[in-house]
Structures are given as structure tokens and as C-alpha cells.
Amino acid sequence: MQLVQLAFRNLFRNTRRTVLTVLLISFSLTALIITDAMMRGMTDLIVKSITETLLGEAQIHKQGFRDNFDIDLFIEDTAEIEDSLSNDPTVLAYASRTISGAMISSSYNVTGGMVYGIDADAEADLSRIKIAVETGSYLSGKPNEILIGKTMGDLLEIKLGDRIVVTLTEANTGEMTQALFRVSGLLHFGITEIDKNIAFINIDEARKLIRLGAHGAHEIAIRFRNPEDAKNTALAVFTNHNTETLESLSWLQLNKEVSSIIEMSSYGTLIIGLILFLLASLGVINSMFMSIYERIYEFGVLKAIGTRPLDLGLLIIIESLLIALISCAVGIILALLISEYTSTVGIPLGEMEFSGLAMSDRILTQFHISQITELPIYVILLTVMSGLYPAWFASKIIPTEALQRSL
Amino acid sequence: MTIVIETKDLCRYFGDSEETMVKAADHVNIEIEKGEFTAIIGPSGSGKTTVLHLMGGLDNPTSGEVELSGKNIAKMSGGELCDLRRDHIGFIFQSYNLIPVLSAEENIEYIMLLQGVKTSERKKRVKEMLALVGLSGLENRRPGKLSGGQQQRVAIARAMASRPDIILADEPTANLDSKTGIALLDVMKELNEAHDMTFVFSTHDEKIMSRASRLIHMRDGKVELDERK
Asked: How high is the ipTM of this complex?
């Protein structure tokens, strides 16, 4: 009789207890896998929300521009950079933008904000501006078109087709300039900051208004073919355009607040995992001890007839291992079934704005191979470790005491 | 005659102070010869089980020696005692104590697995043992499906399967009805006579006493009388 076979049979001496222990561990594993899948989904959602809304995955600016959005700090000729980006195989899309502070007035009200001059076609592949048009239409390149956030529209008490005046400052001269626009679309990003403060006009008009020249821009936003490339600062996008006058930064560097939140979320999974498995480990220890106390006389007999303490300890460890293996199988199957649902239907959130990010109405959990390879290994290790103390206890049973105990 | 086990001035005291000290075995000197069918008898608390445990290396004496086939087991380490019990001593307990998840056959086989006996030899011996104790045909039954008498027969077969020098039996008939107890004793007596197997019992049972070739009377941890029939 092999120890494994004996251990396996021992598990089913008290089927109810074994089933409960297995369920405790497997539910903990399922919860951990789903938490991990949810965190991955949430991270993906946050990253997409931040990069796809407006930011892009990387941006190129004139050195110092980001400090206070100084209109004079613009890239004089974007053509060379755009040429380099269009030949870069890692780049999916890019778009030049002008950015300037403005006063926006209607017949009824006035507000301050930022006016972005955008390349409508290039922007359609890069940001969500086109998708965010709730009423009216996206920029077509016609003169005097302007897109404003719905909140800004409410503030200015205007509707689609109404006229507004935008007052800007010219670059280099600091002279004031004004232009009349007709509202061609109202936007809804779900992010108060954008919906309230940003307006979009055609880049050619913006360049003329603030006198940036035919190829001037304040920002070039970039999207990569593989979003993970944003983490790779060795890419040409970053190395070629970080010079004395230019800076090329990934979204992680541009929005450190969110990148910190994402980093913290991985610790969140770890903490949840630790709590879950601390509880599960206590359950395993309790279960193993109950099982040992029930068999204490039997262990006395086993030692009396010549079973070495190490073998007895090993028997308990194998029992723990078998419980862990069965639990992992159950936990993985359960997690995959739940994941199948939550990765397609999603976990509903309701529309929410989180730290300046618009979250969609549901999180789609994300499966990752480590969820069924790494996490179960931790579970097995922890469960076996939980069995160490009961195993040590069993190996130390003194036959004469054990034999007297139940007589 | 060959001496299988011998105790020399064997003492086992429990308790720390003079007032509370219990002398479960007090300078016990016993020689068990090969083939003897010995019963250690005495009232409860006389120390017969303690002496049996000391003889089997289940407990360490306070002082004195236990020699099994000439080796002093009182000074052996835990691991050495384990090996000694596995290879030289067979135990039969009052509550049978078979492993409930193993069949009769597997229970008998277990100790031989610990000894590293080859599969073919194990199977052969199991068959022999089951036949000797009259349980042929019940080899696949687990203890829960056997009567008390049948379980104790499996325990005897298990004790004998390892080919020990001596079998130590602690109240082996205490949980059995009279008829089953007699049948079981007859099995053991037959094994004793046919195979020259040495048995030492600790018992109150008159039936064992009547069949024993030697009675060692104990009282208050001392040997009061040692009579050979």
C-alpha cells in the first residue's frame, strides 16, 4: 500500500469534512482568480480610458510646454517628426494638436477653457473625440466648426448651430485674436474636466488663429500597435524625440497619478490573496487537526507496529497535498465558468468617473494563463505548508500515550 | 532454551515527587523463552500493560534493561525502536486497531511494506496468514465489514506477517464475547504450538490464563509470582 493511496483513502473517511475543506480552498482560489481577472480588466479599462479618450499612449511636446501650457512653446515643424512616426512600425496612429487657453463666449454667458486644434481624420484613429459626439456631427474640415462639451454648452446656454466667440492669444506676439464659430457638435466624454473645459476646432484654423505656421503644433499624440509598448522607454519613439528641445513621454509618465493607482491595484490583489489564504490555511489546519485527533489511537498503533515518524508526517503532508490538488481542480473549473460569463457579459459598474477617468458601464474580466498556473501553485504551497504543523504533531505522537488516550 | 526477551531490574515510575510517584514497574525481572505462551496477570493498576509496553519498546524505562534477542532496547533511539518493533515484535491490541480504510489483506500487507518485503512474497504471506487465522475469502473486506472476532484475527495475522520474534498482546479478548474469545485463543494457541511462536499476554481473562503455559502474577508493579504449568 503506497502512502499516496492510504492518504487518498483517508480523505474520504469523513467525506463531509473533506468536501467542506475542499470547498473552502477552492472558493478561495476561485475568488482569487476572479479578483485577479477583475483587476486586470479594471486596469485595462483604466488604461484604455486614459489613453483612448484624449491622451494617447505617448506624446511629444516642446520641452517645458507641459509646465504651464505656454502657447509660445510649440514644435515649429511637425513634418519631420510625423514622417519618422509614419515609418515607425510600432506606431499605429498619431495626430498633431494645438493647445491654447481661451475665453469662450455666447450671447448669454462666458467661460474659460482650452481650445484644441485637431486633425479630424488623424484624431479619429487616435482618440474618442469622434465617438463622443452626442449631438450634431464631428469636424469635417469646413470653416468655423467647433465641438464643445455638453456641460460647457449648458454653461454657455447654447445649443447645436449657435454661434460662439473664441478669444485666443497669438503665439510669440501675445496679441489677442478672436473668431466666430458655429457649434457643430456637442460632446459627452463622461469626464467633467473635459466636458466642461475643452473645445475642439480644426487644426488649420487654429494654426492660423494663433499663428503657429503651416506645420506648428503643441503636441503630437501617439498610439502604439501594442499598447504595452508604452512601458518600453527604449523604443525609437522615446529615444529619437527626447532631445534638448523636445520631450517624448509615455502616458505612464504623463499621468503618474493613474500609473500609481494601477501599480497599487496589483498590491490589492496580493493583499486580498493573502487574506483569503490565511483564512483558508486556518481552515486546513483545523480540518487536519480534527482528522488527526480522530485517528490519534490509530496513529499510536501505526507507530507501535513500526511506522517511522517521518512516514506518519509524510502521510499528513500527502493528505494536505491531495486536498490542495482536488481544491485547485475544483477552483479552476469554477473560476473558468464564472470568467466565461464575466469576460463576455461583464461586471456592471454603472457609468462612473474615477480620478478623472470615464469608466464604461461594466468591467470585462480578463483571463491570463498565470491565473491557472501561478495562483494554484501558491494555493498548493500554502495548503501543504498548512499541513506541516499537523504533520509535525502527528509525527510526535507517543505510542503509549496515544494508546492509553482512547482506552 | 533460547531467551527471546529479558527484563533486568526494570523500573518505570510516573510522577515527579515522592508523594505522587506511581511505581508502575518496580524492579521487574522476567525471562521469556522461545515458544512460551505467557500471561502476565494481575488486578488493574498492577503494571502488566506497562511491562508489556516496556518489553515492546513502546515506552522507555526509568531504569533497568530490556534485552530482545540479546540487544538492550532500553537505550535505543526512537528510530531504532521503530525498526525494532517493525522487524522483531508483533503487537495485538485490545481494540483491534486495524487501519479502517485498508482491506483485511492490505492491513496485513502494511507492515511488510514498511519492511520492504517484495510484492510476490507479501502476497504469498498474506494468503498464508489469512488461511492460518481462518479468514480466507474475506481478504477484500474492510474492517467495518468484519465482526470483532474477525478483526482481531486480522490483527493476529498482521502481527505474525512480519515474522516477529515475539507477539505481545494487550488484553486481546477484552472486547470479544466469550465464544469468539475462545475461538481466537485457540487460533493463537495453535500458532504457538505449530509454529513455535512466542506469545506474551497482559490479561484478566480466565480463558487465557487456563491456556497459558506460564503465569506471571503482578501486583503494585512487582512480580508477585512466576509459575510455569
From this structure: 0.83
